[in-house]
Amino acid sequence: MSRLTLFLFWGIGLVSAAAQPASPLAKTPPPGKAEARLWFDQFLPSDSTHAQAPLPISFTYDGRSSGELMSGWSVRHTQRDLDALRQERVIAHTDPKTGLEVRVVAVSYRDFPTVEWTVYLKNTGTADTPIIANLQALDTVWERQGPDEFLLHHAFGTFYPNSPTDFMPQESRLAPGQRKRFVPNKGRACADVMPYFNLELGGHAGVIVVVGWPGAWAAEFVRDEQTGIRVTAGQELTHLRLRPGEEIRSPLMVLQFWHGDWILAQNIWRRWMLAYNLPRPDGQPPRPILAATSSAQFGEMIRADEASQLQFIDRYREEQLPIDYWWMDAGWYVHNGRWQEPIIWKADPARFPHGLRAITDHARQAGIKSIVWFEPERVMPSNALYQQHPEWLLSNRISKRLSKLLYLDNPAARAWLTETISQAITAEGIDVYRQDFNVLEPAEIWRSNDAEDRQGITENHHLVGYLAFFDELRRRHPGLLIDSCAGGGSRIDLESMRRALPFWRSDYSLDVVSNQCQSYGLALWLPFFGTATGPGQFTAYELRSNMTCPLVIPTWDLRDRTLPYAVLRRAVREWREYAANYSGDFYPLTPCSLGADVWLVWQFDRPEAGRGVVQAFRRAESIYEKALVKLRGLEAAATYRLSDLDHPDKPREISGRVLMETGLDLTIATRPGSAVLTYEKLAK
After folding, report:
1. Does residue 664 contact residue 628 with C-beta atoms inside 8 Å?
2. CATH number of domain containing 386
3. pLDDT tens-place string over residues 46-85
């Protein structure tokens, strides 16, 4: 563990709290860039002859601390430029006695105040290593930068079975002697808690700490009795030996330093996510997506057939509802009467005599792409693999569940899965591969298959295989998008989000008030996530509460010609007008609350385009018809034209200074009610 002080380096002109976050397109260093570089250089100096502080990681080896041992091990450094804006540095320590190599692969960014690294441990010796325990990919101490106490911004994850509080933001003030420990429920990476944190250090400075791991991670923030806070993070359980030639890895760790205010920091994070993390099929960033499905009408796809799918696609076209994707969810395959029991991953020939290709081709002729659901990791007794390849499967030896886990560290199992899914993508014309994960207790499965001296090894190897599977699919199909469903939002950790997108963020999707809060909480961290419209939700308030990117329509039964199609067309048209702004900066303008007597208001702003949107919701029991909110991120000297989508004939022109300092007055006469205002900067 290293103890350090965060420097505030004024020489490069850090911006103030009220300043506009720098665009990734501009090369102005964003706030915190110097702090990140200085912090990074302490541990991995660019010149290996320079003094080096102990790495910000820790573990015990044969009962002794890594800090005590590694100072006497051999060291090698390498570095290279990955591109014009990223530099990779590798530092490897090797134990001359046992051959254990500890390799840190780190990347620093020249255009963002960000550093990231992964720790790899490999046995290069000829015998099993001694016990490696409590591997922490991050172990460091920061000092308070002002009189204010440490304030930690964090968030709930998605709860099982369902909860209206999914993804709601939380705050914890850490006074001397206090600690906060975060562990996801049963090894589902975003179950109950999210692996994304923003720690205010005081003095208008802070650091974002993110753990990238699609399994059981742990993070702890421990306040000492003076002015420091120790932060640790890593895989929750490691107590293991490595066999000769064997390697494990830590979770990906990302730190992003900032100076100003924490919302400004969140927008720099969102920009970094867009610039370097979100998948770009065929090199293109994801665009606003409108997807539709007939899941509500056919029990997902259990009772669907070729004719029904073609009928729904044609009806969307007939009603001039321009969808981008047709979504075929669980049940399209040969099954055992339930969607979760596929017998074989092929289209049911009785219902789909021409495979899914007849449907995807029909959709593609209309400019509509296709999404298809799979859940390969959970293997039920009805699945052919259950009998044919038991050696590929892991049982839960604690709860004795009948379902098993396809072990993705097994080379034959992963090769079979990759080939099976890849062939289906090609043969059926699939544009989005949707992977679900309804294994409720993966940590129990992994740990019940660990030997006493190999605790954590099964999880580590399985997750490395899971990420490798996604990587190979993307290599084989450069235009493919992957949708990480995972029971609704339980795998939206950073490593998964570098490979996939969450089209369906939560299974708690039909409560409009919860949906508002879910959008608020997730927008602080992710610039792309989706949810669904609910059955019978046709008012502007209901429809707007569910507007995200992507937007999913699972409940509209287009066989019913009496639906309010004019209302639906208007909702889709409005969404098309402002959906591009979801990729911009996000500013919450009111606190987040599930209360029935409040307003909830936020703003998305694209300064490069000079455009944005304000979305406001007056809840059912709010007695207030009016609200005054101060916008953010605008140019004070510029003039903006604002258009209320409910009153498009009454645009207003207001200066950026007035909108930010005096505020924007909003009126919503009905309750519950909503308002959506788009704005654009006028040319001087």
Report:
1. yes
2. 3.20.20.70
3. 665 555 778 899 999 999 999 999 989 999 999 999 999 9
